[in-house]
Amino acid sequence: MAINNLLTPQWISGKSLMSLEANCPTIQSMDNSSNDQFGQPGMKIGDMMMKRKPQRFNTADGPAYQPEGLNDTGVPLVMNNWSQVAFDWNSQEMAQSLDEIDSRYITPAGIALGNKLEYRALNTAMLNTGQFVGTFGQTPGQSGTDAFQIWGAAAAKLQNNGFPMGKGQYNALLNPTQQLWWNAYSKAFFNSQDALGKQWKTGQISDALGLNWMVAQNVNIQTAGAFGGTPAVNGANQTGTSITINGCSNNITGWAKAGDIVSFPSIYRVFPQAPHQSTGVNFEAVLQADVNTDGSGNATLVLGEAIVPSGQYQNVTASPTNGDLIKVYNTAAAGQSALAGVSSAQGIVMHKTAFAYMFIPLEEPRGVDMAKEMRSPQSGISVRFVRQYLGAPTDLWINRMDCVYGCSPQYPEGSVRVPAGTL
């Protein structure tokens, strides 16, 4: 049987890239500006680059020269993910029409890769997002809750933190349940009949509240810790990412879980630019490690964002006071037991710059039947296809599609989690 000569490496790589890109809305909601500068051939799995952040100044008054010290900061972007889809086929299967090959092999492979990349991007976003709106385990719009206010509050938090609005800058990644309840909630709105008509016909949310809405089936699920007791800050003047607490239930493994969000009622976020005015919003942070309590109810919280009460990079009004009663998902101690062990999908509203990703363009190996690497100029997503013949005894052709990439928090204060419940 004749080999399909139209089955070129350019055609296969191009089709797989189209399918992969179409299934990666989250990645395309992130900053890909590092691709052009650092995503070059020759990089390899495990490589790391430091992406420098802009300087932040406090300013001074008066004619006298008052220089400020420069403080270089950056975020690491590690190429630590390698994902692939591999399969083999024989000459008869390879002789099918291009449409059959596309629908049976290439497009499904791209969809599978896209879902793996989406899951990892959303996992990175969830575990590094320390702000929260709504009620944990409950979808906005469900049980009489005000979906408009909850989603709008997420956007307001981004604005309070200095992230400008603009087309494509504020992106809402939500799961199908959240989309369902938004549609149900918004059907009675007085709004553009054209916008509501499109929403009614397609089930897709039209742009609202300054957000670009995208459904992502791989929105991650967070299972809350056990909690218990009356958790409080143990000692004044604590700063940085490590905060000691007391008052928790004794000897609890998993009192809180990595990914849970805590807040400190005695301190408030500030606008990032001098004079660092309070936003009136309590400081929240996501836990980076599970929290276990000792026999006296003491524990240490490892925060995803440092508490910085002064200086160029000030982000709070003060350090938390001794005895400050800690909230979990904006819930006081009396209500925290109701959250214990609850699982909730975590939609995310993020600014375009909150997270960064990068793909490495893999080398095209020699000595194989075909090899082709392709990158999308719009999204920066890169995929390589390689095919090789194993030999006459098996009459099998091995095929593989590979992506090497990294995803890291860049300005995680530019993202907010929004919960989902059950249908």
The helix content is: 10-25%
Note the quaternary state here: single chain
Distance between the amino and carboxyl termini: 52 Å
Number of strands: 18
Q: Give the helix tally.
A: 8
The secondary structure category is: alpha+beta
- Rg is 25 Å
Strand content: 25-35%
Q: What value does the average pLDDT take?
A: 89
Q: Shape, please?
A: globular
Topology as H/E string? HHEEEHHHEHHEEEEEEEEHEEEEEE
- The poorly predicted ranges are none
What's the story with the biggest beta sheet?
5 strands, antiparallel
Describe the structure.
Strands 3, 14, 15, 16 and 17 form a five-stranded antiparallel beta sheet that branches. It is globular, with a radius of gyration of 25 Å. It has 423 residues and is an alpha+beta fold. β15 and β16 form a beta hairpin. The protein is built from eight helices and 18 strands.
